[in-house]
C-alpha cells in the first residue's frame, strides 16, 4: 500500500475507505477503527503533508481526489464503502463521481459533516493565525490540552490552511448524480450542515439522512454511535453492478 493510505486490518472483508477532515490524517480514524475492528478492512487516507506523508501538501481538491483514485487500485471483485468527514466528505463525493463514470460502483457512499457542493462557503483560510485557530477550535473535537498548547497548534496550522484552501477554491463542473446508495451524516448542533443537508438530494439517486448528537466533530465525540451506523450500512446494501 502506498504512503497515501494506511491499512488498519489485513482482511478480505468489505473495505471501508476513509478520508479525514481538514488537518486530519489516518490516525484520526483509529478511535472509529476500535469499534469496527474485525468487521471490515479499514483504509485511511494519509494526505500529502499530513501525518507520516512527507510529500508536499496539495491545495487543489480535484488534484488530490485524482491522486487518491490512482493509488487505490480497487479490485473489481472486492466490495468497498467510501466514508469521509468534513473536507473528507467532499473528497468522498467527488471520488464516487469519478469512479462511477468508469463503471466502478461503491457499495455505499457516506458523506459526513459537509454542505453540498453547490453551497457557497465562508472563506477563512486567509485569516490571521489567531483568528484562524479560533475558527478551528470552535468546531470542537480537539482535546483541551492540545487547544491550550499554542506551540503544538501552530505546528498544525499549515496543514489546516492547505486543506481549507483546497475546499474553498473547489469548483464543481460535474453534475452527475451518485448512483450508489448515499448516506449523509450530520451532528444536530452543526447548524450550517443541518440547514443545508436536504441539498444533497440533488446529488444522489438514493439518499438516507442520519443525525447524531454533537456538533461538527461528532465523529470524535459520538464515535461508537457512528461506528454502529457504519456497521449497519456495511451489512445493508447489495453490491452495485455496472
Relevant terms:
alpha/beta, 7-stranded mixed β-sheet, 9 helices, globular, 242 residues
Give an account of the 3D structure:
By secondary structure, the protein is α/β, with parallel strands linked by helices. Helices cover 37% and strands 15% of the residues. The protein has 9 helices and 7 strands, in the order ββαβαβαβαααβαβαα. It has helices at 30-36, 61-72, 87-101, 129-138, 144-147, 150-169, 191-196, 218-221, 223-234, and strands at 5-7, 15-19, 41-45, 80-85, 108-112, 182-187, 207-212. A 7-stranded mixed β-sheet has the order 1-3-2-4-5-6-7, with helices on both faces. Helix 7 (191-196) links the parallel strand 6 and strand 7 (207-212). Helix 1 (30-36) packs across helix 9 and helix 2 (61-72) packs across helix 3 (87-101). The protein is globular. 40% of the residues are buried. The model has no long low-confidence stretch (mean pLDDT 89).
Please render the helix and strand layout as text.
Blueprint: E1 5-7, E2 15-19, H1 30-36, E3 41-45, H2 61-72, E4 80-85, H3 87-101, E5 108-112, H4 129-138, H5 144-147, H6 150-169, E6 182-187, H7 191-196, E7 207-212, H8 218-221, H9 223-234
Parallel strand pairs: 2-3, 2-4, 4-5, 5-6, 6-7
Antiparallel strand pairs: 1-3
Helix pairs in contact: 1-9, 2-3
**What is the number of helical segments per DSSP (H or I, 4+ residues)?**
9
- Separation, N- and C-terminal Cα atoms: 26 Å
β content, as a range? 5-15%
Q: Portion of residues in helices?
A: 25-40%
> Mean pLDDT across all residues, rounded?
89
List unreliable stretches of 5+ residues.
none
- The shape is globular
Content-based structural category = alpha/beta
Order of helices and strands: EEHEHEHEHHHEHEHH
Amino acid at each position: 500500500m502506498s504512503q497515501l493510505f494506511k491499512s488498519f486490518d489485513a482482511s478480505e472483508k468489505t473495505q471501508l475507505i476513509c478520508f479525514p477532515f481538514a488537518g486530519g490524517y489516518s490516525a484520526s480514524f483509529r478511535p472509529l477503527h476500535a469499534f469496527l475492528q474485525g468487521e471490515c478492512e479499514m483504509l485511511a487516507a494519509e494526505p500529502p503533508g499530513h501525518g507520516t506523508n512527507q510529500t508536499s501538501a496539495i491545495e487543489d481538491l480535484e488534484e488530490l481526489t485524482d491522486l487518491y483514485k490512482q493509488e487505490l487500485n480497487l479490485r473489481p471483485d472486492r466490495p468497498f464503502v467510501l466514508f469521509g468527514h468534513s473536507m473528507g466528505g467532499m473528497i468522498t463525493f467527488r471520488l464516487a463521481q469519478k469512479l462511477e463514470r468508469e463503471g466502478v460502483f461503491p457499495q455505499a457512499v457516506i458523506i459526513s459533516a459537509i454542505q453540498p457542493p453547490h453551497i457557497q462557503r465562508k472563506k477563512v483560510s486567509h485569516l490571521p493565525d489567531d483568528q484562524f485557530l479560533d475558527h478551528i477550535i470552535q468546531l470542537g473535537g480537539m482535546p483541551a490540552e492540545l487547544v491550550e498548547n499554542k506551540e503544538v497548534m501552530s505546528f498544525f496550522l499549515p496543514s489546516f490552511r492547505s486543506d481549507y484552501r483546497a475546499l474553498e477554491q473547489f469548483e464543481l463542473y460535474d453534475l452527475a448524480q451518485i448512483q450508489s446508495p448515499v448516506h449523509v451524516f450530520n451532528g444536530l448542533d452543526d447548524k450550517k450542515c443541518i440547514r443545508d443537508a436536504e441539498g444533497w438530494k440533488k446529488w444522489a439517486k438514493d439518499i438516507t439522512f442520519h443525525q447524531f448528537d454533537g456538533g461538527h466533530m461528532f465523529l470524535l465525540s459520538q464515535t461508537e454511535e457512528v461506528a454502529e451506523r457504519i456497521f449497519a450500512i456495511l451489512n445493508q446494501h447489495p453490491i452495485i453492478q455496472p
